[in-house]
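Record 1 of the preview.
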Amino acid sequence: MKNSLLIIIGSIFVASCGVSERFINDDEINGSNPVRKGGEFIFNMREGDCGAKDYGDGRGESDCVNGNVQQRVWTRKDYHAPKTLEYGFDVFIDPNFTYQETLSYRPRGSIEIAEWNRKNVIKNHMYEMHLTGRGVTFEDKTCFSSSRFGEWNAVVVRAKWSNNDDGELVVRCNEKVIYSKKGPNLIPPGCGTSVKSQCKLEFIDVSKPIVFKLGPKYFGFGRDWREMGRASPFLPWPQNGINIKMRNLYEGRIRN
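->
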């Protein structure tokens, strides 16, 4: 009887707290992988360390062709809407990090540290968290400023993915709500504009599953860099590099 009671209590605890999926390296696309030490992922990106694997969508593109450099982790799980999920992580930005965006057509910046997008379809990127020398943002809302570089910062995102009025998306940074939106959320605000260059309305397919990826990605000029008069597909590397840490990664049911 006592053992049965313990099992029931344990089941209730797991159901209320939620159990995260396991995060692993995105080996298929990373130029190099982050290092896992204890409960932390350590991302130390190197200039030009791109992944040469073709994206496989018939365009002949890869990170090396486009000038992208990334180190990312994910659970390899994907979810079809409608679905209610919670995502969480703590992030530590190197206190020596400095970066100022030089491309006017990327008003949110060229460095992402988290992303939600649809799988197996191009130009269906949804939401991102951007990193600049001023801090970290989500949809132009400040998550935390550069004054908190060198400290751990807690991020929790709760989403009811839906294309209907019952949708909801709430982002908390260091226990403060910085973004809240009710209603359809499968097509992000600004899709097709300069703030969402990886989202094109003509390619949107809300039937495709959603995936979540964590870790830095530094976008290059793209495959047309020569036509743009650039010497390389890669943007200038930040003076002090791109070095961040993450811990307490979570993807799963809503935790109480």
